[in-house]
Design brief:
CATH superfamily of one domain: NAD(P)-binding Rossmann-like Domain
Number of helices: 12
Structural class: alpha/beta
CATH topology of one domain: Rossmann fold
Mean pLDDT: 98
CATH class of one domain: Alpha Beta
Radius of gyration: 19 Å
Largest sheet: 7 strands, parallel
Number of strands: 12
Order of helices and strands: EHEEHEHHEHEEHEEHEEHEHHHH
Strand content: 15-25%
Bound molecules: nicotinamide-adenine-dinucleotide, 2'deoxy-thymidine-5'-diphospho-alpha-D-glucose
CATH architecture of one domain: 3-Layer(aba) Sandwich
């Protein structure tokens, strides 16, 4: 597995994956295809952009001739598809880009990869395809698909295309489904980086509803190790779940963040709940542990503190994002303009 085509490598998880691959495998080469949407940021990879084993190609995964050209411009051994519209709240505001990139983009990549006889394809998916849990139980790879948001519906459609390409054509595709990631370079629209950035700026933290919804948090590098394990030793046609064994209600997480930052609880604002808000996600990782030899290694307290330290040290990165169109999005979503 020498040369990887990574899509969406300028986003949060993709950029962590690209860096981690280059650091972990001296012989790996990476071509990174990214459209540079609002969430894609070349700054996420400035430290490795001059590495001779790395090449960036700006473009859209929905553009078949562009993808065909990239796939034949190097001897690509595997494709890892991170490229997506990834934020649930934005999908509620406008599902159009989610249908286009997450579904059509995946179909284009699958078709082009099949034609180019790529030996391995990995679809980076999400636990949200399983819908929601009540107080008990865990998602396994056999849990029926029951997406509840336009985002998760589009990711589910992509997963079904991947499944169909394996069953119909024998195309060697693998799907991974992970819980909520956190860590460095996460765009500050998602809960943890949004609340860290708002708290540091003494702005209100908008907790949806009562804050009783539960998420299972996994450090992004544990997710990257899981994707790598599935890519190298997973079985084509299979699905592998990853999770962090770190379930928390949103309000408990918010209190933890405020305490760690030394900020007052008066910053908490309970705002209108997210439409169709999934109550709880939790993952059974038995299959990935047994078949891939993977398990999450980062303990949540350590990971959260190192993430907070990263955001403190990279306030200029955050400030450049929290301007212009970001402020418009924020106002549209939360009804208040950031100062
Ligand atoms: P992100 O929004 O931070 O990054 C997405 C990247 O994809 C950006 O760089 C963007 O420019 C690029 N992109 C978007 N549309 C594109 C297109 N049409 N062509 C090429 N590039 C395009 O997302 P993320 O949080 O890093 O998530 C990456 C993947 O992991 C997604 O597929 C997401 O569904 C999945 N996932 C995310 C999480 C999470 O907690 N963030 C958990 C499980 C799975
Ligand atoms: O589970 C995996 C998924 O995790 C990924 O597939 C998605 O790409 C990723 O965005 C994430 O989805 P969530 O919707 O769970 O993440 P988000 O950070 O948006 O929200 C986490 C929880 O916090 C959720 O219950 C909603 C709540 N929340 C979020 C925001 C942005 C708030 O209470 N206030 C907020 O302002």
């Amino acid at each position: 597995m020498k040369t990887l085509l990574v899509t969406g490598g300028c986003g949060f998880i993709g950029s962590n994956f690209v860096r981690w691959q280059l650091q972990s495998y001296p012989d790996v080469e990476i071509v990174n295809v990214d459209k540079l949407t609002y969430a894609g940021n070349l700054e996420n990879l400035t430290d490795i952009e001059d590495d001779p084993r790395y090449r960036f190609e700006k473009g859209d995964i929905c553009d078949r001739s562009f993808i065909d050209r990239v796939l034949t411009s190097a001897s690509i051994d595997a494709v890892v598809n991170f490229a997506a519209e990834s934020h649930v709240d934005r999908s509620i505001l406008d599902s159009g880009p989610f249908i286009q990139t997450n579904i059509v983009g995946t179909q284009v990549l699958l078709d082009a990869s099949r034609k180019a006889e790529i030996g391995r394809y990995l679809q980076v998916s999400t636990d949200e395809v399983y819908g929601t849990l009540g107080d008990n139980g865990y998602f396994t790879e056999d849990t029926p698909l029951a997406p509840n948001s336009p985002y998760s519906a589009s990711k589910t459609a992509a997963d079904l295309l991947v499944r169909a390409y394996f069953h119909t054509y024998g195309f060697p595709a693998i799907t991974t489904r992970c819980s909520n990631n956190y860590g460095p370079w996460q765009f500050p629209e998602k809960l943890i980086p949004l609340f860290i950035s708002n708290a540091l700026a003494d702005q209100a933290l908008p907790v949806y509803g009562k804050g009783n919804n539960v998420r299972d948090w996994i450090h992004v590098l544990d997710h990257c190790r899981g994707i790598d394990a599935a890519l190298r030793s997973g079985k084509p046609g299979e699905v592998y779940n990853f999770g962090g064994n770190s379930e928390l209600t949103n309000i408990d997480l918010t209190l933890k963040l405020l305490d760690a930052l030394g900020k007052p609880r008066t910053l908490i604002r309970h705002v209108e709940d997210r439409a169709g808000h999934d109550f709880r996600y939790a993952i059974d990782t038995t299959k990935s542990e047994h078949e891939l030899g993977w398990k999450p290694e980062m303990d949540f307290e350590t990971g959260l503190h190192s993430t907070i330290d990263w955001y403190l040290a990279n306030s200029a990165w955050v400030d450049r994002i929290r301007s212009g169109l970001y402020l418009d999005y924020y106002e549209n979503q939360y009804g208040t303009r950031l100062a």
